Amino acid sequence: QVQLVESGGGLVQPGGSLRLSCGASGRTFSGYRLAWFRQAPGKEREFVSAIAWSGGSSDYADSVKGRFTISRSVTKNTVYLQMNSLKPEDTAVYYCAAKAVVFRTPWVREISFYDIWGQGTQVTVSS
What we know:
Elements: E1 3-7, E2 10-12, E3 18-25, E4 32-39, E5 46-52, E6 58-60, E7 68-73, E8 78-83, E9 92-100, E10 116-117, E11 121-125
Parallel strand pairs: 2-11
Antiparallel strand pairs: 1-3, 3-8, 4-5, 4-9, 5-6, 7-8, 9-10, 9-11
């Protein structure tokens, strides 16, 4: 069973950047879809971005498109979320999620699609 560990959160000023990392213990990400979700205080958890481990194609929520970039390192078995031009409304706990998929599985942004979750990392955007 894959276990996910996120890192890289912290406090950053508006307009700043952070890079989140999500590593796996237990096995490689081969054959998985990886995603980032976030949950702000008092709000529901929402989809941010996803990447297909095989091929590296990606999907983004409109709210982060053009500012965030998801990527992966096959050699390090790690998924990254590069967050630029951060805004106060990006403040949330960010969660990494994973799901074993078959070829040509369509993009799904639902929380229930993913069955492996990390513990979350706090991102705070404030001056």
